[in-house]
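Extended Data, record Glycosyltransferase
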Amino acid sequence: MEAANPNPTVVLHACLGVGHLIPMVELAKLFLLRGVPVVIAVPTPPASTADFFSSTASAVAGLEAANPSIAFHHLPPPDYPDPDPHPFLQMLDLLRLTVPSLLAFLRSLPSVAALVLDLFCIDSLDAAAQTGVPAYIYYTSSAGDLAAFLHLPHHFATTEGSFRDMGKAPLRFPGVPPIPASDMPHTVMDRADPICTIRIGHYGRIPEARGVLVNTYEWLEARAVGALREGVCVPGRPTPPVYCIGPLIVSDSAAAQGERHACLSWLDAQPERSVVFLCFGSMGAVSAAELKEIAHGLENSGHRFLWVVRTPPADPAKFFLPRPEPDLDALLPEGFTERTRDRGMVLKMWAPQVEVLRHAATGAFVTHCGWNSVLEAASAGVPMLCWPQYAEQRLNKEFVVDEMKVGVVMEGYDEELVRAEEVERKVRLVMESEEGEKLRERLALAKEKAAEAMADGGPSRMALAEFLKHSKLST
């Protein structure tokens, strides 16, 4: 009889979005630190989808190069000759069509301890079932999002109508504050939309997993975590165990690889907590009109700023497609750069966000509320000015402002035009007012609790140990 493999592998099945890949890599590091062999299975887009996925290929290559200790396995591209014209459906189709390749890969390994998959890869539960491999979901957004999404299948089964027709009417889900219907993700706005049907089906499959790992820390989302653990988010069905293992964000040492970015030297010369940092994530961008409003608002505020500008999408339907570098002379008001050169810095496309947020000069963060950005700001103790754009970011905005109380809202985001007066008003509020000081006090505690969560014996470390025991990866 063949002896059992003493070191079975954990397979992490990643989605291709940069905001999903990075926390998956951080999870892989966590497993390796505990002596658990791990491999990240990455889908390979077929040539027919090259336009949509071109930027993710370079992101995957960069993550591989930066993490030589982590094994990456590139699943072969599926046959997809006629891709759906909708980019989001393209991604969902790609992940669904990749399941047979994942199944073959699982069967090729000597021993697999567990399959940990991104929620977008939920069809891969079928591959786990066919191989008898225990499957877990790694949820890379907030526990609040998870609580709301777990409840959506029940909500859709017991109500009529669509969120898009409800305006700002409050939705009440277990574990989260009331959510304006208009702040729900576009993917679930219209119950007649095929995308909505697919996503509700995805959420309905979450309880099939053996457990859910969540990139959060319990102090930050105590109410949502409590509801998840009490099982009230999924009426009539058991909820799998939930493990809060975050915040998993890029470490200082990883962020500092390579040559130090010029903006960090610029920050070195600024007073402590004096700079407003504006960045809308790896894919986010505001309109050309809003870029000018931001510029006027920053100029009128009188505060120092570090601003990452990306080219606005010419066609809203192509929001997620790669875009060229911005022409700052064309996009920003005439003379803006010259007038603010002594207190501002404008960057094209990208900044080392983790390092910027952790810099002593950074005093506020204008953010799209992507969950990685929220965790990075909370862990660094930086107040947030919330300007959500897509996906679950509007939900995160609700939680950041109303539940966590670590940020304020940029009003007008839902009308697709935040005015210069609002930018100036909110920058001054956070940087100058008593309310801003209270935010900083709250953020100082959030930073402290994040460090405690990830320290030896901290809640997130204990949750990881519990997961390893549950999945029989440790005794």
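Summary. The chain has a mean pLDDT of 94.
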